[in-house]
Specification:
7 helices; alpha/beta; 35% helix
């Protein structure tokens, strides 16, 4: 039999441990009213108002139902610091097969020209159908995919799905493919300069 004093000490230790848990734990992150403008990496809310939040089973169902637009908004790899400029550097971005990669499209704020380009490109990908299934994703704990989904909800899209476990969640069950940056999005620097 365990002495009462020992049980009380264990209970106090457990309460102390719970109180020391981070305030921004994954279970209590509230949705911001608008887009998240802080760092892109960090705990995200468990919800996205106006969108469906998917786990891998849900994503498999959405993919099986038709051809959703899969929007990968993961940041592009950066050339390693200190790497000589004359050394070849050929990063390969792996993603869900068939995904459209628009690096940094989940950033906030986006300048008006880039936000307009993002929405125009999504309109092209959905063929103007605001009810078509769209899945935004990135990596776990990535606000970029949350923001991309929020932007689409704010623009009146009704088939928005957010896959918060992102590429790593996909890889637990499926193969990935190397994808190139969406050509229309890749030209955003030139498009912004023309406006």
């Amino acid at each position: 039999m365990i002495p009462l004093a020992r049980l009380a000490a264990a209970a106090l230790l457990a309460l102390g441990t719970m109180a020391a848990a981070p305030a921004d734990s994954p279970v209590d992150v509230p949705e911001p009213e608008g887009l998240h403008t802080g760092p892109q990496q960090g705990y995200t809310p468990p919800t996205l108002k106006g969108a469906a939040v998917l786990d891998i089973d849900g994503l498999d169902r959405v993919v099986a139902q038709g051809k959703p637009v899969l929007l990968d908004v993961a940041l592009a790899d950066r050339r390693p610091a200190g790497m000589a400029a004359d050394k070849p550097w050929l990063p390969a971005h792996r993603s869900i097969p068939g995904a459209v990669w628009m690096p940094s499209a989940g950033g906030a704020p986006l300048d008006p020209a880039h936000e307009a380009l993002f929405l125009r490109r999504v309109a092209e990908l959905t063929e103007g159908d605001k009810a078509r299934a769209i899945v935004t994703f990135c990596h776990p704990d990535c606000w970029g995919s949350w923001n991309a989904g929020k932007r689409l909800v704010q623009a009146g899209y009704t088939g928005v799905h957010w896959f918060p476990t992102g590429l790593e969640g996909w890889q637990e069950r499926h193969e990935t493919a190397v994808v190139k940056e969406d050509p229309a999005w890749a030209g955003r620097a030139a498009a912004g300069a023309q406006r």
